[in-house]
Amino acid sequence: MADIRIVAEGQVLGHLSGKLGFRKIEARGTVLCLNGKPVFLTGFNRHKDPPTTDVSPDHEMTREELIQMKQLGCSFLRLCHYPQHPRTIKLCDAIGLLVMWEIPLYMWPGVMV
User: Reduced to 3 states, what is the DSSP secondary structure of residue 87?
Assistant: First the structure.
C-alpha cells in the first residue's frame, strides 16, 4: 500500500493511497520474463458488452468470466480501446492475469468515434 500526501505549511493539500507494485518485464532472446522468471502468455481478447447491461459494466459477470478464463489456463488478457472499469483491472491483478490495456483511440485528434 502506498500513501502519498502533499503537505504545505503543515496542511495536507492532497492525498492519494492505493496498492503499489513494481514489475520488471524483459525479453531475453525469444523468452519473455516477468520479474526474472520466464512467462508464456496464453489469453483472450475481451470486449465489455454483456447482454444484461449493454455497454455498462456488469461486475458479477466480469468476475465470473475472468475467473473462468484463469481456470482455462489464461495468463494474459487484452482489453479493448475504450475505457475499462477500474474494478476490472483490480480483479485481473488480484487473480494474477497480465493485462494489455489499449490506448484509448477516441482521445486522439482527428479520430472519429
Answer: helix
Q: Which residues of 75-102 are buried (b: 16+ CB within 10 A; e: fewer)?
A: ebbebeeeebeeebeebbeeeebbeeee
pLDDT tens digit sequence for 44-93: 998 877 777 777 788 899 999 999 999 999 999 998 877 788 899 999 99
3-class DSSP state of 5? strand
Report d(CA 25, CA 39) in Å as an integer.
10
Tell me which CATH code domain 23-107 carries: 3.40.50
Q: Is the pTM of this model over 0.90?
A: no
- Residue ranges of the domains in the chain? 23-107
Q: What is the pLDDT of residue 47?
A: 80
Number of H helices, E strands in the chain: 2, 8
